[in-house]
Amino acid sequence: MSYLLRVQLPDRPGSLGALAHALGSVGGDILSLDVVERGAGYAVDDLVVDVPSNALPDTLITACESIGDVRVDSIRPYSGILDTPRELELIDQVATARDDRLQVLVDGVPRVLRVGWSTIIDIGPHGIYRVVGSVSAPQTQAATAPWMPLEKPTALDPDADWVPAIWRDMDTRLAAAPLGGTGRVLLLGRPGGPDFRPSEVARLGYLGGIVATVLG
Hints:
Layout: E1 2-10, H1 15-25, E2 29-38, E3 42-50, H2 57-65, E4 71-77, H3 87-96, H4 101-113, E5 117-124, E6 127-133, E7 154-156, H5 165-169, E8 172-178, E9 185-191, H6 198-215
Antiparallel strand pairs: 1-3, 1-4, 2-3, 5-6, 5-9, 7-8, 8-9
């Protein structure tokens, strides 16, 4: 069984080694690590940790937080691909796709940015509508998007009135970025959190801008 942990830890030598030792003491094996964000004296990392099938996820949290100044932001089961394609690989996949390039984009974004789902939405004569969505995108769609048109990438208020109730019930964190000057928006959902970090929102913005250029 594998879990994806987002942890905040001191950005100093030895911190990651101490964390790996603590996880190992409860049978956890770190399979991959991505640095999400670095700040003044701290780092936020995403770790995929494999544990025995009978192990409880709470043991991983306890192990992490047994180290001073380490905090677990979130933990959730992980069944993704460990060699997660990065942004440039996804851009290449979109550029070389023969058709349905927007579908290739929304299907790839959840793996790249580690979110639950992604959609592309636009505004038409009768309001907003979904252009395309990932396989995991919820069937329930937003009826309005008062924040559109969108000029820059942003994390959205997950409790706003426009957010469908079922999204709120699932504690879905939201972020969006414009697809160049097309008026379309790439919308991401992360059910259960954690919140989108500024660095993740920035990555989303860069991705949306580059893909818009590739699509022409």
